[in-house]
Structure formats: C-alpha cells, structure tokens
Predict the structure.
Amino acid sequence: MLPTGQTQKTETVNSIQVLRAAAVMLVVMSHAARELDWRLAGMNLQQSSYVDWFGSLGASGVDIFFVISGFIMVYISADDFENRQAWKGFIFKRLFRIFPVWWIYLLLYFLIVKIVPMAAGGFSAFFKLDWWYLLNSFWLFPAKNESGLSMAPLLESGWTLSYELFFYFIFSGLILFSRKKALRILFSLFLILSCGVFFMDADTSIRLRFLCNPILLEFVFGCFIADIYLSRKAVLSNKVLMLIVLAVFICYFFSRDLFFNDGIHDVRRVIYWGVPSALLVFCAVLAERNGLNIYPSFLVLVGNSSYSIYLSHEAVSLTGGLKLIKIFNMYHYFHPDLLVGLLMLLSIVIGIISYWLLEKNIFKLTRRCLFKISSAT
C-alpha cells in the first residue's frame, strides 16, 4: 500500500511488489463489490457473487500489506541499525511519503462528500463532518466520528495508515539498537499491547482499542522475515515452499466467511489471515532468492503503484465509476460481477496514472526537501 522504500543500499525484491499488487487488488475488489452491492440492494437487483466466492477475504489484503511493511522497513534499514543519526532520516522519509499524497486524496474526497454526499457511498455518506474529526483525519489520528459509525478517517482506507504511522514511530526509535535487539523489543512491546484486547469492553476508549489491536503483530512478522532473509538462515527448496503456499491458500479458503471486528475477533484475524500472510511473504522472498524471479512487469508496476491505487480507488475511482454506471444505466445491462471487474480495472488504471503523475513527482520534490533539511543540520 505504501510507497516502495528503495534506497541505493538495497535492490527491489520483485516478489514483494507482486504481493503488493495482489494485496491492493484484493482490497479494491472487496470495496468495489461492497459499494456496488450496496446500490444494487437499494434497487432490489441481483448482487455480485463476490461474497459467495470470496466472503470477507478481500480485507486480508491489508494483512499482507502490514507484513510487507514490516519486511520493507527492516530490509531498507539493514545498514542503519545502531546509527544514532539514522532515526531522523527514517521518520522524515516516512512522513514525507505518506502525508502529501494522503492530503491530496483526503481533500478530494472531502469535496465529494460535501458537494454530493450520497455519491461517496458506504459509511462516509452518513458522516457528520465536525472539525475535530476532520483534524484527526488530516493527521491520521484514530477518532470516532459523531455519527458513531466508524473510528476510521473520512477517507475510510486511511485507518491502515494510522497503524503504519504508529509502527514507523516505534521502529524509528528502535534503530538505535542492533537489529536483533530491536526486533526483540518490538515483538515484546506489541505482544504486551496486544494482550490488552482481552481486557477491553464496550466502554474502552478509541485510542486504547487502537493501541491494543493484535494486528500490530503482523508488522513484527514481516520484520522477522526480513531478518531471516538478510541473514540467509533459511534454505528451503521451491517444492517445499509451494507446499506451504498451498497450505496458505487452503487456510484462506476456509476463513473466507469469517468477519473480524474490534475485540477478541482481532486475535482471530491475526491467526487466520496474519499468519498465512506472513507465510506467503516468507515463501515469496525465499523463492525469488532460489531463482524464481519471473514476474510479469505489469504486476510489478501495479505493486509499485499500490499506494496510489489504494488511496485513489476510494476517493476517485469507485465514486466516479459508480456514477458512470448509474448515468449509463449499466446496472440493468451488465452482470454485477462484470461491473466489479470494470471498477477494479478503472481503479488500477487511475492509480497507475496517479503514481506516474502525482506520487513520483511528489517523491522527487520531498527528496529535495529532505536533502536541504539534512544539509542544513
């Protein structure tokens, strides 16, 4: 979901980019089907068969993203551990990569919600846009909207970025230690926080629910995978890796009808989606090291564009695509599954264009700003 953290010290791991592509397509498919079915149900029309085939599994793309984020952060910081100056550069880079693009799409979505509220769809169509909530959305702080429907930002997909930011701030402080010690501290901290989920009730505050979500452990999974990858400890044949991947898909299949929410269900999410996602990432990077590195360039491009696709699909692509479907009365002429596919295609195309024209140029600009800041200090 987030921009690729490439540096001159590391090479791109193409299997990671392909997994990012798969993850963002899962999320887009999930949201496209949800928004389309929400409208079809209101017109008493046939809904898509997405739920029959995939259940809630599309949401597991987020779990893959979190594992990948943990992997990438350790991978790109391999030479920075025990460097007392590195944490500043690390956190500034992460902030500059997340916020500018986030602010642009948040502003676009805010304008859509204000001008055509019902066009936004989903829960956002009913949000009360109080300024405290908007301020929290701007800075990606978890806060409950006055409507009481969600603790996510106005642009709903941003809830994952709140967890990304929390992980980055914790990780930036741990760069001061050796890699092994940093990972042990990170695991201990997130495990202790996760145990808080067993003591939560209906009166538990939003911020405490956020801090005690076991989904944080998925970042740790990715960190340990990167540590294994960098130290070249694991040596498994591609046949063994394929068997593990097969087991992962079987696990996904049997967990597709599960629905996870706050509280104890988040523990189940880590077990049913987080662990398989970690195994998937583990197998992918080891298979690439074993020489399995034949990946379609288009999927690598989608992986590179995943952050732009992730933000633009809700703010622009689905809103605009569903509006076009309504204008041309496509609900009555096309099967809903085809409409989901068209919405996915539109989201990917717009996201790639956004990556080329917006995200890459913003990255170049912020990189120059960072260079000036580092030169001044």
Summary: The longest helix spans residues 336-376. Confidence is low (pLDDT under 50) at residues 5-9. The chain has one domain: 14-376. The radius of gyration is 20 Å.
